Structures are given as C-alpha cells and as structure tokens.
Amino acid sequence: MSEPLVSVIVAIYNQASYAMETLESVCSQSYSRQQIIVVDDGSTDDSAELVSRHFGSRVQLITQRNGGPSAAINTALRQARGDFIAMMGGDDVCEPERITQQLEILTNSGHDLVFAKPRLIDSDGAELPDHEVPVLYIDQAPGPEMYRRLFLYGNFLCGPTAMLRASVVTELGDFHAGLVGLQDFDYWLRACGRGMSIGVTDDRLVRYRRHGGNLSGTRSVSALASETGYVLKRSLEDALPRVVRTAFPHVLPPRVDLDAPLSQYEKSLLLLAHPLREVQAVGLEYAFDLAQTGGARDQGAGPDLSMFHFLMNVTRRITS
C-alpha cells in the first residue's frame, strides 16, 4: 500500500525574510510524499520571486491579488489533492518529524484534526518562554469539554500546527473570507460542533514565530470581541444540537431528544452565559426577538417563566 499524500499549505504575505526558512523546513521533512502549496496573497515584497527561484518545482506556487488570510487558505484548499492537509504559517518553522508524527496520530486514532503545542520563537529565531502565550499550553481533552471550552474561552489551538483529514474540508468547506482575526477559531469551532474529534499533542513540532508583524497582533481587542459574537452565533446555527447540549448540561434545560434543533431560547441562554459582554449582547438580541414572536415559554423555558421577567433579568445582566 502506498503512503498517503499530505498536502501542506503555506500562505505568505510580505514574508520574504522568513519564507525561505519556512519552506526549507517543509521540504526537509522526514516524510517525503508531500504536495507543497504556496499561495502568495498579493505580497508587495519579493516573496513570490524568492520562492520561485529557490524552490522551483519542489513547491506549487500560486500568486493572487491580496484577499486576506482566508482567501489564501481557500485557494490552496481547492488545489489540495492529499488525504491529509497540514497548515503552516509563512513565518513559522516545522521540526523534521512534524508530518510523520502527526500522520501517525491521525492514522492510529479517531481524531479528525490534530494540533501540537508550539515552540515559541521571536523574529530572530530565539526561543521564547511558554508564558508569552499561555493559552496555547493549557491541557485540553477531546469530547464535549473541547466544544464548551472553545465556546467560552476562545481559541487555544495553534493554527500553524494543524493537520486534518481531507474529509474535514469536504464537510466544512472554505474558511470564512470575511473574518480577519478569528478565521481559524471559526473553523476549529465549527469542526468541533459537527462532532469531529480534535486532539492536541505535547510534542513541540512547530516553531511558532511571534513578532510585530503577526496578524493577531494587529487586531484590537474590541474588534476581536465583535468577531467572537458573530462566530459563536454562527456556531450555534451550524453545530449538531447533541454536541451543544452535551457540552452545556448546566446551562440548558433538560431535553429528552438531544438531537432536536436548538431553540432560540436555548441559544439566548448560551450566549448570555458567555463572559464577554459583546457576546452577551448577541444573546440579548435573541431574547428581544423571543419577546416579539411569542416568548420563551413555548421553547422549553418552563411554564412559570414570564417573558417580562426574562427580559428584565437578561438586561440587568448585560448592564451590571
């Protein structure tokens, strides 16, 4: 039996100073059956020229007008032929065994996506302590707890370490092109919400570069909070009801049929339980819609719930 093909996606934008090291680390993997797709997303430096000159036919280089990170990833996904797909940042570095180890995990486990805890480096390649980005090093167990923690606490999965089955892309489709700061988080949350299994290994398989040009550092806290509300609302519309109800038994009223569609009342409760006010505000919108269309009582809230008192309580929660 032949070895499976792994498509490695590398999106670059004005990263000429790092892309050579990044691609050399991919080309030097111990696992050789790779399709390496490089998408230059409208760089204004000589990134594409350098890639073409140094790597030639070893990589599949695609150049396009600047459309943002999701557009670059989506372009690459449409060209991917592999049974497995590995993500890579244009300024990060793979350890030689990355593909071999992650492929072994995906082949021998029930996981659909796997991530690794990264080794942090600075702009010069010097190692940084884990506490620079502590959220990436919290132990995470797969299953309902994964969805709950993603929903409540945001992204703790390092995108440049991701490797997934091609079937994940077949089911989920493209990354959301309108998101700039949370496009990765949206994708991982949707995968988890669809019941896909996500694993995180302690092996430091990728050196994740932190510097002033990182996209994540260019987005304000308020902008990311705004995107969070949208992403979570989108997740509740897309996720399997059973996954959501199993993740939040302490928030949602008990249901005999776990697979029944989530009611607007249930979605409101989940959004109001979120620690971010911007997300709570989205839950409040659901609550006001309920008041206009007949109230929460008909959606499983219980016979004693007055819509007036429901709205008063949630409004007090938002404004306190």
What does this structure look like?
With 320 residues, the chain is of the alpha/beta class. The chain has two domains: 6-219, Spore Coat Polysaccharide Biosynthesis Protein SpsA, Chain A (Alpha-Beta Complex), CATH 3.90.550.10; 223-319, no CATH class. Helix content is 42%, strand content 14%. It contains twelve helices and ten strands. The strands form two sheets. A seven-stranded mixed beta sheet has the order 3-2-1-4-8-6-9, with helices on both faces. It has a three-stranded mixed beta sheet with strand order 5-10-7. The longest helix is centred in the last third of the chain and has 18 residues, at 221-238. It is globular. The relative contact order is 0.11.
The top-level CATH class of the largest domain is Alpha Beta
Parts with pLDDT < 50 across at least 5 consecutive residues: 314-320
Provide the succession of SSEs: EHEHEHEEHEEHEHHEEHHHHH
Percentage of helical residues?
40-55%
Number of strands: 10
CATH fold-type name of the largest domain = Spore Coat Polysaccharide Biosynthesis Protein SpsA, Chain A
Give the termini distance in whole angstroms. 63 Å
The share of residues in extended strands comes to 5-15%
Task: Count every helix, treating DSSP H or I runs of 4 or more residues as helices.
Answer: 12
- The CATH architecture of the largest domain is Alpha-Beta Complex
Reading side by side through the largest sheet, how are the strands ordered? 3-2-1-4-8-6-9
Q: Mean pLDDT, nearest integer?
A: 89
Question: How many domains in all?
Answer: 2
- Radius of gyration over C-alpha positions, nearest whole angstrom: 21 Å
